[in-house]
Every structure is written in C-alpha cells, then in structure tokens.
Amino acid sequence: MQTSSGTNGAFSTAGAGAPRGRDTGSAAVLTGRVTTPDGRAVGATLTATDSGGTQIGRARTDAEGSFTLRARPGTALLICSAPGHAPRAETVTIGVGGTRHDVVLESSGRPARTPVAGS
C-alpha cells in the first residue's frame, strides 16, 4: 500500500465511501486518521476533489478519527473540516493499491456551534 506525505505515522481504517450516484471508475481507497496536534481523535468530514473542483469522494471519521474514502486514483485535493477546528486542504495522490494519509486539525479558537432543536 502506498503512503502519501501525511503529518502523523499511525493509521487505521473505518467508515464511509464514494458519493452516491457518482461513477468513480476504478475506485481506489484513501485511509487515515484525523486528529488534533496532541493526538485526540476528531469527528470530521473529508471531501476529495479533482483538479476541476469536482467531488470525487467523501467520507466521515468514526469515533477514533479513522476514515476510508473511495475515489478514482490520481491526484486530489483533500479538504477536511470539523466543528471547532480550522479547515485544512492538502494535495494527496491516491494510488490504485490504496493510500494512507493522516490529517491534523488545529483548533479554530472558537467553540463548536451546537444546533438548537426547533431553530
């Protein structure tokens, strides 16, 4: 399995996949973990786009911050966002045999907003 240039060394896999209704051709898999700088798991959404800005894959992390994203092989922009954290965008190369890539999110300095029922 290929490893892209990530910011951490430990990886595990879980959850989600390619967007429904989109043909990903020969799908490849990008796995990794989203954490804070001190290693705490982050509940995040990850979106992969091609060079034209078209979404080619989307995933959510599990309770341990792990994700599995299915997309067509090649270079993609991986956008990661989570409440209470600054979003991060990184270029990754998704290999046919699979690629692992961790993302570290910094705090946004603002508390996460919680929706209020009925609003």
Automatic annotation (TrEMBL):
Chain positions covered by the region annotation Disordered: 1-26
Could you list the residue ranges forming a coiled coil in this record? none
Instruction: Spell out the Pfam families in the cross-references.
Output: CarboxypepD_reg
- The biased composition feature labelled Polar residues covers 1-11
Q: What is this protein called?
A: Carboxypeptidase-like regulatory domain-containing protein
Native organism is Actinomycetospora termitidis
